[in-house]
Amino acid sequence: MREASFIKRGLALEYVTLGWNVVGVVIVLAAAYVAHSVALAGFGLDSLIEIFASVVVVWQLMGMHQNRERLALRLIGTAFFALALYILGQVAYTLLTHLHPHTSVLGMIWLAATLIAMLLLAWGKRTTGKQLKNEVLMTEGYVTLIDALLAAAVLVGLVLNAFFGWWWADPLASLVIVYYGMKEGIHAWRGEA
User: Fold this and answer.
1) CA atoms of 2 and 133, how far apart (whole Å)
2) CA proximity to 39, closest of 99, 82, 121, 122
3) C-alpha of 146 from chain center
């Protein structure tokens, strides 16, 4: 009986994450387009990967006793690798072309809100995953934590660009996710949480 309530809580956390990120993709990609911000575009892609990871976790939780864990971890790991490669390409392009992003107040407000929301969701997923002994939910909790860290890093880059004109801070801020994305992608492929 207790396992069923933890599964229900895990699903609820994933549904909240899905809703937040679906709205966020629209807001962030619109803000990225207007501001020509690689960091915001990278964050929008991170939101798409978070949506993918949440869908994988919902699929795994709904069939928790059907040996879906290994495949689910590999899918999440692959999403991490794709995100890291995309961001590296965008950063290289921006730095080589000296593309100067504009200030995005909307982007900064959404990133600050996302930072708080994702920290709370990551904590909930990690706690629930431990209670369920579910590696997939715990790993996806790391995806959510990385989403929060990326929001913080991109926010810093946007603020430095807005207040000091440091255009290069915007793409460099997105490099934070490359390190974490590769690290967590490797962990997910190995089945580590």
Assistant:
1) 13
2) 99
3) 5
Burial annotation 71-107 (CB, 10 A radius, 16+ → b, else e):
ebbbbbbbbbbbbbebbbebbeebeeeeeebebbeeb
> Encoding tokens for residue 61?
């939780």
pLDDT (tens digit, 9 = 90+) per residue, 93-148? 777 887 778 888 999 999 999 999 999 999 999 999 999 888 888 888 887 888 89
Q: Which residue has the tokens 């974490």?
A: 180
- The closest alpha carbon to 20, from 83, 113, 82, 87, belongs to 113
Q: Which of 23, 13, 5 is nearest to 138 (CA)?
A: 13
31 residue type, one letter: A
Q: In which region does residue 192 sit, left (phi positive, over 0), alpha (psi from -120 to 50) or beta (all else)? A: beta
